Automatic annotation (TrEMBL):
It catalyses: L-threonine + hydrogencarbonate + ATP = L-threonylcarbamoyladenylate + diphosphate + H2O. Residues 14-199 form the YrdC-like domain. Its main location: cytoplasm. It comes from Halopolyspora algeriensis. Its EC number is 2.7.7.87. One of its GO terms (cellular component) is cytoplasm. One of its GO terms (biological process) is regulation of translational fidelity. This is L-threonylcarbamoyladenylate synthase.
C-alpha cells in the first residue's frame, strides 16, 4: 500500500518527509514535487532501487535516470571535474530548471542505466524536494509517469499512473512551472542543448558568452 502526505500542511509535511526518507534509505520509491514536474525517486547509490524505478515507469536502461542534488557542493563528488562553463550555469540557474550532463566520477558505485560514463544533474527549486535531498543525499529522479504518458503535475496524477509501485507520495499542489527542465550537455568542447524547457537558449547564451542553440 502507498501513502499520500499533504506537504502543504505543516503537521503532515514533516511526517511525509520522514516517511519518504525512511523509504529511500530502505530501497523503496517515492514521488516528490519539484519546481518543474513531479518526480519518482530512489537512492541513486542503490542499483536495485533504480531498477525498480525504471520498471515502475516501464522504461529501459537505454534511458538512464537523472540525479537530483540538494546543494551545489554535492556536484564536486559526483563528477570527474566541474568545468568553468558548468560553474557559471550552476551559479546562474541553480536551484532551478536546468539539468547538466557531465562526465561522472569514475569511482562512483552506482548504476543509473546506460549512461556511457556521464551523469545528468540538477538542483530543483522546491523546498520539499530540497529538504528530502539534504536528508538522504543524491537521488535518482525521473518524471513521475509511466513511459508514453504526460508527466504528472500533482502527486495524485502520479499515483493514477504508478500506483502501489511507489510507497510514499508527497503532495504539494500543482507544479509551479509545469514544464520539464532544460538539458545541456557539457561533455564536449561546445555546450549542446539536448532539450529546451524551463530555461531558454537565450538565457544560457548570455551566461556563457556564446551562442547556445537546441539541437
Amino acid at each position: 500500500m502507498s501513502t499520500v502526505y499533504d506537504c502543504k500542511r505543516p503537521d503532515t509535511r514533516q511526517a511525509g518527509l520522514t516517511a519518504a526518507a525512511n523509504t529511500v534509505r530502505s530501497g523503496g520509491l517515492v514521488v516528490l514535487p519539484t519546481d518543474t514536474v513531479y518526480g519518482i525517486g530512489a537512492d541513486a547509490f542503490d542499483p536495485s532501487a533504480v531498477g525498480s524505478l525504471l520498471a515502475a515507469k516501464g522504461r529501459g536502461r537505454d534511458m538512464p535516470v537523472p540525479v537530483l542534488v540538494g546543494s551545489w557542493s554535492t556536484v564536486d563528488g559526483l563528477v570527474l571535474s566541474v568545468p568553468q562553463q558548468a560553474r557559471a550555469l550552476i551559479e546562474a540557474f541553480w536551484p532551478g530548471g536546468l539539468s547538466l550532463i557531465l562526465p561522472q566520477a569514475p569511482s562512483l558505485a552506482w548504476d543509473l542505466g546506460d549512461t556511457r560514463g556521464t551523469v545528468n544533474l540538477r538542483m530543483p527549486l522546491h523546498p520539499v524536494a530540497l529538504d528530502l535531498l539534504r536528508e538522504v543525499g543524491p537521488m535518482a529522479v525521473s518524471s513521475a509517469n509511466s513511459t508514453g504518458n504526460p508527466p504528472a503535475l500533482t502527486a495524485e496524477q502520479a499515483r493514477e499512473q504508478l500506483g502501489d509501485a511507489v510507497s510514499v507520495y508527497l503532495e504539494s499542489g500543482p507544479s509551479e512551472h509545469q514544464v520539464a527542465s532544460t538539458i545541456v550537455d557539457l561533455t564536449q568542447a561546445r555546450p549542446r542543448v539536448l532539450r529546451e524547457g524551463a530555461v531558454d537558449s537565450a538565457a544560457l547564451s548570455e551566461v556563457l558568452g556564446m551562442e547556445v542553440t537546441a539541437e
